[in-house]
Specification:
Helices cover 78% and strands 0% of the residues. By secondary structure, the protein is an all-alpha fold. The chain has one domain. Helix 3 packs across helix 7, helix 6 packs across helix 7 and helix 6 runs parallel beside helix 9.
């Protein structure tokens, strides 16, 4: 397994697309949060909650990008045919899948943690430098929401890997992972509301439920699940798709 992990890490870090997505995933939320702190810090109506909200909302973009990185770790191999020597070197395909899963989870957790820590400390320093009070204790749900962004990144990466194993195509996987949370769920939600006249169902769409992990509001919005329930629900969806992908890897030809 150690050899498999080393091999997967080498392959992951040599994909140029992964570097581009990683840089954007780290830089985007930090730039938005720090600029918000610089602009709003020192104002009479300054509220540290707005900075936490800016950080947790923008890290959702990071989550989507890390999810794509996870998918590419498997689709890139199918696309270039390197999956064959990979399976030849490690005949037990389950070991390859497990190594990829461990790698994308650790990668997502480390990067998202860095973003959260730097975002919080950086915005606090800027706000305090402008004379504003920037204390995490002033926002009771800040820590759970920030931890939730890290958990969300890990679960979304597992989902991305699962989608990649099922579709085996980088363009198809990337398209699915982007349009699913941004477009498909809105369309499906609109149809459900139209048919059932119950807008509470919107909160139970997978990504909407998962994003509750990174929400400052611990109670579900619009009748949706709470942070914990939403996280569990999204995690089960991610696990189901990943298991489906793992079965596909075992049964289909490379």
């Amino acid at each position: 397994m150690i050899r498999a992990l080393r091999s997967e890490w080498i392959k992951m870090r040599t994909i140029a697309m992964n570097w581009v997505l990683t840089i954007i995933a780290v830089v985007f939320p930090l730039v938005v949060t720090l600029i918000t702190a610089a602009v709003r810090g020192g104002h009479a109506d300054f509220d540290f909650r707005s900075l936490i909200d800016a950080l947790t909302v923008t890290t959702r973009v990071s989550v989507l990008l890390l999810m794509v990185v996870a998918a590419v770790t498997i689709t890139n191999e199918y696309g270039y045919g390197t999956i064959r020597p990979t399976f030849a070197a490690t005949p037990k395909r389950s070991h390859v899948v497990a190594a990829k899963a461990i790698l994308v989870i650790v990668y997502a957790v480390v990067l998202q943690t860095v973003v959260v820590v730097v975002g919080v400390l950086g915005s606090q320093a800027i706000a305090r430098g402008k004379g504003s009070v920037a204390d995490l204790s002033s926002v009771p749900e800040a820590v759970p929401a920030l931890v939730g962004t890290v958990v969300l990144a890990a679960l979304a990466s597992v989902l991305g890997l699962g989608v990649g194993m099922v579709l085996r195509s980088t363009p198809l996987s990337v398209t699915m992972l982007i349009i699913w949370p941004l477009i498909v769920e809105s369309i499906v939600g609109g149809v459900l509301v139209l048919l059932t006249k119950n807008d509470k169902l919107l909160g139970w769409l997978p990504f909407r439920a998962g994003f509750q992990l990174a929400s400052i509001d611990s109670i579900g919005i619009d009748g949706g699940p709470s942070r914990v329930v939403g996280g569990i629900y999204f995690g089960l969806v991610a696990l189901a798709i990943t298991l489906l992908g793992a079965v596909a890897v075992q049964r289909r030809d490379a």
